[in-house]
Amino acid sequence: MADFLIKTYTPALRNLTRDVHLTMFEKLGLGLRVAGTGLKLLYAFAWQEQIIKAGYLNDHEVNDIGGVAMPYVNMLCNALNGFKHSDHEVQSCKNVYPGDDTCRTGPSPHAKWHEMSANGLLDLILLADDINGMLSQKLGRGDAVSRRWPLLKALNSPWFSFWGGWSPGE
Questions:
Q1: How far is Cα of residue 152 from the mean position of the Cα atoms in its chain?
Q2: Cα 103 from Cα 137, distance rounded (Å)
């Protein structure tokens, strides 16, 4: 797999994007979306007991704190990446599945791994779709409105849509 990524995928990606030049604003937005998505996935992997062999995974207090922290991790990551999610309860870790409140803060890390990895993978799909749209526009395959008025496209990005619809009461 690593051989494929290094010898085949990376050169092909560089070749495809060699003429793509992002503005500083686009780089910042993309960086924030990658950071928010990556942080969710890293948090999920912190609870993957089959890969991570660490003592904290068996500590009841650490598992409790990790479960309580999940909605705050989601909130931070969503603020970074700006992706809108249709189910607020999933992002706030309420009523996600039967018994979620006891499983999430229970002595096992497994429920946290499943819930956060699902959440992070959804963001990864949204990120891939966003990057596809950006590349399509930069490579001249986007819609005419985006090519003619790139600022309109930027203002319609997930990050701006998220913050434009946010209010302190939410």
A1: 23
A2: 44
- For the chain, which residues score pLDDT lower than 70? 142-170
List, as own/partner pairs, every contact residues 91-98 make where C-beta atoms lie below 8 angstroms and the sequence separation is at least 24, other chains included: 91/119, 93/67
Mapped onto helix, strand or coil, the DSSP state of residue 29 is helix
CB 20 within 8 A of CB 139: yes
d(CA 158, CA 63): 32
Q: Token pair for residue 3?
A: 């051989």
Q: Can you give the pLDDT at residue 161?
A: 62
pLDDT digits (tens, 9 = 90+) for 82-114: 998 999 999 999 999 998 888 888 888 999 999
In angstroms, the CA 13 to CA 10 distance is: 5
Name which of 143, 104, 96, 147 is nearest 122 in CA terms.
Answer: 96
Q: Which residues of 15-45 are buried (b: 16+ CB within 10 A; e: fewer)?
A: eeeeeeeeeeebeebbeebbebbbbbbebbe
Contact call for residues 120 and 41 (beta carbons, < 8 A): yes
